[in-house]
Amino acid sequence: MNCLIDTKKVYTEVDAFIELLNDNYKNKIPKKLRDFFKNEKDNNYIMKIDPNKPIKSQNLNDDTLSLIAFLNLKYWCEDENEKQRLINKYAQNEENYQEKLKNLYNIDKVLENNKKRRKTNSEELSLIEYNKKETMFKKFIKFLKKMFLKH
User: How many CB atoms lie within 10 A of CB 132?
Assistant: First the structure.
């Protein structure tokens, strides 16, 4: 359910962005797609975009920025060299992102961390169990001493 709400908010932000465009840019996007954003947006989510601020400082969702980048590549960018530069840039960004994820969720690192955690936990348990056994043993010795010393 939350994913659907987030998606609708992204559509709201994209629709608000499109509404700020002049008719020349707006009309380059197929009407069916513009209508889709309008019809699928979250009407309870109010998004104000300041046209005097750069897009990066608008606190837009990352998915919104991705959709705007797609619209730029697909409908607004007419220079083939610029399109190719953008495609290469997007591919490099994706490669960097995947590398970051790979390092963050590297199975060897995860397993090593789990191994260290288990070792630490088992050492703590060993100390606790040893102390318990020692205490039980001491109690038993005390009990025997009391028994023999009384007689």
Answer: 10
Per-residue pLDDT, 43: 92
Closest-CA residue to 21 (of 49, 63, 59): 49
CA atoms in the 13 A half-sphere facing the CB of 53 = 10
- pTM equals 0.63
Cβ pair 42, 9 in contact under 8 A = yes
Determine contact, residues 67/10, Cβ cutoff 8 Å.
Answer: yes
Tokens of 54: 């750069």
Task: Report which DSSP code applies to 75.
Answer: I
Task: Note the pLDDT of residue 119.
Answer: 63
Low-confidence residues of the chain, pLDDT below 70? 1-2, 110, 114, 116, 118-151
Copy the structure tokens of residue 24: 């020349």
Structural domain spans, the chain: 2-77
